[in-house]
Structures are given as C-alpha cells and as structure tokens.
Amino acid sequence: MKIKNTILVLGLFLVIISANSQNKTFKKDEFKQWAQTPPMGWNSWDCYGPTVEEHEVKANADYMAKNLKKFGWEYVVVDIRWFVENDKAGGYNQTDPRYVIDQYGRYLPAVNRFPSAKYGQGFKPLADYIHKKGLKFGIHIMRGIPKKAVEDKLPIKGTNGVTADQIYTTALQCEWLKDNYTIIADKPGAQEYYNSIFELYAQWGVDFIKIDDLSRPYHEGEINLIRNAIDQCGRKIVLSTSPGETPIEAAPHVTSHANMWRMVDDVWDTWPHITHLMDVEQKWYPYIAPGTWPDCDMIPLGRISVRGERGEDRMTRLTKDEQYTLITFFNIFKSPLFFGGDLPSNDAFTLSLLTNKNVVKMHNESTGVKQLFQKEGKIAVTSKNPKDGSIYLALFNISDIASQNVSVNLSDLGISGEADVLNMWTNEKSKVTAAIFAADLKPHSSVLYQLKSKK
Hints:
Low-confidence stretches: 1-21
Number of helices: 12
Strand content: 15-25%
Structural class: alpha/beta
Largest sheet: 8 strands, parallel
Helix content: 25-40%
C-alpha cells in the first residue's frame, strides 16, 4: 500500500511540475536569448515540398546527429502541409485536400505520412525521437485559421462560445495557398486561437516554428498574436517569419518579435536567385544581432527536389564555385543556416561545405558584419572575432563574363602592417605586408579569409 501511495504522490508531483512549466510566461525580449547564435538545421522543403514523411525526417535527423551535430547543426524542421493526407509535389492539391484537424480547429499530422502521430499523439513521438539524439524539432505553419474550422464553426479553445467563423476575414488571404483565412487580430478569440495552437505545439515538444505568409504584406497584427502566444506557452520556441521580402520599414517591429525573418522569396539553385539576395540584403546589415537574424532562406545544395516544387530530382545545379559563393555569403552574413537538400544523399563535397570548423567558428562568433562595397560586380564583406582578434574578409566576383581583381585597403579592415592570412576553404596560409589586399576571381567565384594582424 505504501508503494502505491508513493507512486501516486510522485505521479501527482510530476503532473504539477509539468503544468507549472507549461504555465510559465516569458518576459518581453527574453525570446532573443533562445537564438544567441544564428540557428542551424535542416528543412524538408527544398527536397520534399509538401510531401515529406516520417521515415524521411528520421533519416535526416539520424544523419545530422552522426555527421553535423558536433558542428552546431541541431534543428530538424518539417515544412509545409504536414496535416494533409493527399498532398502531392509539383503544385498544391487545392481541389480536394483531406485535412486532419481537431475539434478546436487545430491541424494535426496526417497519420498516413506520420504513423507515430496515431491515437492523437501529434508530433510528440517524432519530437521525442529527435530530442533523444540531442537535436531540436521544428514545424511549418501558415498564418491564420483553417478554412475548414471556419466552415464547420469549430469552437476556439479557451473562450466562452467563440467560434472560428467569428474571428476571420477573407481579406489578405494568402494568394498561393488558400488553406487558411486571415485572423482579425482585435477580435475576441483571436489571441485565444493562437494561444491554443502554441499550447498544443508546446505539448508536442516543438522548439522551432516557421510561419508563412507573414512578411509580404507585413501582418503586424498576427505577428503580435503569435509573439504573445509563444511567450505564454511555457516552451522556448524560436520564431521564423517567412517568406520575404520583409519590408525594411518593419525592421523595428520584426526585430522585437521574431528570431529570424526572410529577406527574399525562395532561393533556389540558380545564379540569379543568389545575386538578387545579395542585392536585397544590403539594407539589413544594421539588424544582424544576437537573437534576431535576417534570413537568407534555405540552402539549396546537395540533392534537392526529390519530390519538390522546382524541377526534377537532382543534385544542385550550382557550379562548385557558385556553391562556395552561396555558402560563404550565408556564413559571413550570419544568416540562419537551414540545409535544404536530403542529407543522407550528400556527397563528400557537399558535406565539406557544412563542416568547416573555421567557417562555423566565424558564423557563431563574429561581430560587426558590414559590407565594404558592392559595385561593378565586386563585393567585399567583413566582420571580426572579438575573442581572438581575427578579421574575416569575403570577396566576391558576381559578374557573369569576366575575371576580376577584387581588392580592399587593409586600413579599412583596421589592419596596419603585416598580417597572417588563412584561406578558410583551402587552409592555405600566407602573409600580407602591402597596404592593399587583393584576389583574382573568376566569374561567380569567391574567397574567404581570416586575417590576424602582427601588431
């Protein structure tokens, strides 16, 4: 009898602890502590579009745990429409989607794609699998409330009789995916709906959430609801707003509400996508800061479009020079890094782009990121490492037809006199003594250096 009573008391104690943790409310701006360095992980979109299945997510998590975790890669993110049973690649199934949704209008994982979600367990078993590997779990959602919840007038959890049809509008509905309606932010029940979904996600063990159709136009009202809901859900959930182009005028708001935000639309494996990104990002350098990161989008390298939205199953179409340019730019800009290819399909070269210790160190520790110039197809970006005094310098030739000499004045880097130079991709070491530092670069190519002044 004593043993049974002890078990009962212990069980009650654990329930109370769990309830208290779920009821924790975070302070304003505390969320910035959750991503002091730019988040790094894998996202299913580039390779599986809206069709990823549980076994594929686990395979990518297994690869990350084995090959990438020690370099700081930790998030495993299930992208779009995990709640649709019959979705397909190459265009969304808009005619007869079979949604999985609960009695409160909250999407649930499709069990035919995520078998561990059976019996109403949601993503908790999958999150547990990923957490046991020392990794973190993320999901994608669309902003707003499901059309099906509105049509069926489903009740909003946490309200006294408010139903989904009382908090929506068809205005500003997403143009490219019409699963949801816009939520009217000041309606009674609006905050409660977002609270209810994040309560569910916290129970599942979600660590990261990417929310689509927030940035263009910029939905400040719904972003406020989302931030409030995360802050009171009891779990530290990193918030990524998507897709771009986030208006620069919204910078004060997005930096105080999100951990990362997209600057452009989807970046795919074509050179114009990269040059467009490099053009748009110029205005975002002042907003690179711990906890809040301008986001260059997923990394379209390795094997992509296995069942994706842009083209056939393939290894990235970018040349090796272009791949170095992309990964160099993402790293020195301190963008969040979310690999888009199928990790188990990586070749040795692709893996090498993700596991360079010096580049990872720069990505994590550098400060003061700034562009020195972008003109005539030449770009120079620099930052510094306050821990060891290193200066980082990335030089790019983004012109299409000609090799170019790209040079900087060492004084612009705060260096005078002799400096040791490390080519961070080749590990070649050299010295520089002249006042000008230069590199001859082929079209679409780049170099990344670490410089240490002798003084």
